[in-house]
Specification:
The structure holds 2 protein chains of 2 kinds. By secondary structure, chain A is α+β, with helices and mostly antiparallel strands. In chain A, the strands form 2 sheets. A 5-stranded mixed sheet of chain A has the order 1-9-8-5-6, with no helix packed on it. In chain A, strands 2, 3, 4, 7 and 10 form a 5-stranded mixed sheet that branches. Chain A is elongated. Chain B is mostly beta strands. In chain B, strands 1, 2, 3, 4, 6, 7, 8, 9, 11, 12 and 17 form an 11-stranded mixed sheet that branches. In chain B, strand 6 and strand 7 form a beta hairpin. Chain B is globular, with a radius of gyration of 19 Å.
């Protein structure tokens, strides 16, 4: 169907637009600086991706680190390293018997003090060597003679011993880590303290050479 | 496809050669290195193993923990999935509801302990109790698995697991309605003569 002429009015002529803005002149150095900034930002974004934690690292506990006698405070408990000793054997004196723990290697004995923030806790330890090996406290010494079996309560400090069986050459550069035992349905992000034993090669060798033959504890 | 056909197709890949070793052999199981030293039948009550009125078949090994953390000696129960004595299967047990398998301990200074510390070598004993009057076997054959540092597809975290492969279903599996079965791959078999120690 043809539209009769005259029904649609002719569009009025467009008003003249604003005059073309004159092209702003950008100096060459600013272009170069902008390009460089963009490149730096892009490179930075790529670099930050390399710092993303792996799934294993995301599972790691929250660590407070320090050295000998440093009071390490976490949300759950505080701990401090009080003494480091070495021994060739450990004798646990019980009420009616005596246990003798021997080793072809050496026993590293760590005295730790601890107090809790809110609730009584039991603290487990493990020893991390300079090479990243993780040693559990030895089962040759009855856990009842060690700090692992003691309750740490709010309000006062108590100390106890942890016994590790290690090769003598692994002592230098090691640290002892304390945490609440991780349970399957417990808190996923448990805090831990990491105390450097302050042993370099020379000091470790000297202390191991001077190790006691028998270390006596009651348990 | 031509290459695949030339090598005999995908289905007929040659079965992996099972390595046969004897007494004193050392097997690298990645997570641990195991030296098979001896197999002996003797009464218990010594080294913290068993009681003196029973006899035990003891497989004696030197195990080095090659991982970076302390592990329990009982892990050797998984690392050596099969043990046969004169053709009779000791492990895996015919009925896992009856027995939890052999006890595996670290023996040192006449005591039995449980820990294998990283980088350290310890004497490990796997002990099977023999029924009274049962004659000592002449030879045991032990199948060794290999561990891998496995990444979970779900959580992307890592842990040690034995390398496994799909195995045919057993009657038990069908009864329980399982549709798939994985078993540890046995790369190496170690055959040890068994000596008998009276007292």
């Amino acid at each position: 169907m043809a539209t009769p002429p005259g029904l649609v009015p002719d569009a009025p002529p467009l008003p003249p637009g604003p005059p073309e803005a004159p092209r702003r002149h950008v100096p060459a150095w600013r272009r170069a600086a902008g390009a460089l900034l963009g490149l730096v930002l892009a490179a930075g974004a790529v670099y930050v991706q390399t710092r993303v934690l792996t799934a294993d690292q995301l599972d790691d506990p929250l660590t407070v680190s320090g050295g000998m006698h440093d009071e390490l405070e976490t949300d759950l408990f505080s701990a401090r390293l009080e003494r480091v000793e070495f021994a060739r054997s450990v004798r646990v004196k019980k009420q009616f018997s005596t246990d003798e723990a021997t080793t072809e290697h050496v026993f590293l004995i760590v005295k730790m003090g601890a107090t809790s923030r809110r609730k009584p806790v039991q603290l487990t330890a493990h020893l991390i060597t300079a090479g990243g090996l993780s040693f559990d406290p030895t089962d040759r010494v009855d856990a009842r003679a060690t700090m692992a079996d003691k309750w740490v309560q709010p309000g006062w400090w108590r100390s106890g011993l942890y016994f590790f069986e290690i090769p003598p050459d692994k002592a230098a550069g090691s640290r002892v880590v304390l945490s609440e035992p991780k349970t399957l349905f417990g808190d996923a992000f448990i805090p831990e303290t990491s105390s450097d034993l302050g042993l370099d090669e020379a000091k470790a060798r000297q202390m191991i050479d001077a190790a006691k033959d028998v270390y006596e504890v009651s348990g | 496809m031509g290459v695949t056909a030339a090598f005999g197709g995908l289905k007929d890949a040659p079965a992996k050669q099972l390595e046969q070793l004897g007494k004193g052999a050392e097997v690298d199981q990645v997570r641990m290195r195991t030296k098979f030293e001896d197999a002996v039948v003797r009464p218990g009550g010594k080294d913290g193993i068993g009681t003196s009125d029973k006899r035990y078949l003891q497989i004696i090994m030197k195990v080095t923990n090659q991982s970076d953390a302390t592990m329990l000696a009982q892990i050797m129960d998984d690392a050596l999935p099969t043990v046969r004595a004169d053709g009779k299967t000791l492990k895996p047990a015919a009925d896992p509801d009856v027995t939890l398998g052999p006890r595996v301990v670290v023996v040192s200074g006449g005591h039995a302990y449980d820990q294998l510390h990283p980088g350290m070598t310890a004497t490990v004993v796997m002990a099977f109790e023999l029924a009274s009057g049962q004659p000592a076997p002449e030879r045991v054959v032990i199948g060794a698995a290999t561990y891998e540092w496995y990444e979970s597809f779900f959580s992307e975290t890592h842990y040690w697991v034995p390398v496994t492969e799909e195995a045919p279903l057993t009657a038990e599996d069908r009864k329980k309605g399982r549709t798939v079965r994985y078993e540890p791959v046995i790369d190496t078999q170690v055959s040890l003569p068994v000596r008998e120690e009276a007292q």
